[in-house]
């Protein structure tokens, strides 16, 4: 009993001490505000997503910085991914169709899977937040034959 009594007194002293020093904070329960940036079942170029890789899911998020006036190497993605432009702008170019679309700071986009494409920055550095949903240790990006890695 003595141990329990000492523990109770210690807990009481900690509680009183926190109250006296102003470090105890009332917890408030509230809902948060959500800005829904993107919901997509197809990529920016209109191609529908058809599958996820099988196996253990793996999520990855990277912050990618592309210098001004830079075209990334042509590549494909074997897994679904989305991006968000933190700074600058990104023009995505589709190699086969020649289609392109420019995304500006504050815009989200759904990248294509299995389609050869590349990103091109504008007059300033482009900073992207990229999130990949993969599995089975698949790479996030695969360069086309003869091309360098995207990152």
From TrEMBL:
Signal peptide annotation: 1-26
Transmembrane parts of this sequence: none
Family annotation (CDD domains): cupin_CV2614-like
InterPro entries: Cupin_2 (IPR013096), RmlC-like_jellyroll (IPR014710), RmlC_Cupin_sf (IPR011051)
Xref: Pfam families: Cupin_2
Record key words, sorted: Signal
Start and end residues of each Cupin type-2 domain: 64-126
The name this protein goes by in its record: Cupin type-2 domain-containing protein
Organism of derivation: Asaia siamensis
């Amino acid at each position: 009993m003595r141990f329990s009594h000492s523990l109770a007194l210690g807990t009481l002293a900690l509680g009183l001490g926190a109250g006296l020093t102003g470090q105890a904070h009332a917890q408030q329960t509230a809902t948060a505000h959500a800005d829904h940036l993107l919901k997509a079942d197809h990529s920016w170029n209109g191609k529908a997503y058809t599958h996820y890789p099988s196996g253990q899911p793996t999520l990855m998020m990277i912050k990618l910085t592309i210098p001004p006036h830079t075209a990334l190497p042509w590549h494909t993605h074997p897994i679904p991914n989305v991006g968000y432009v933190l700074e600058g702008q990104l023009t995505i170019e589709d190699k086969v169709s020649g289609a392109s679309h420019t995304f500006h700071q504050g815009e989200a986009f759904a990248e294509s899977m299995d389609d050869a494409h590349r990103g091109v920055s504008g007059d300033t550095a482009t900073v992207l937040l990229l999130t990949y949903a993969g599995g089975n240790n698949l790479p996030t990006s695969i360069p086309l034959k003869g091309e360098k890695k995207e990152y």
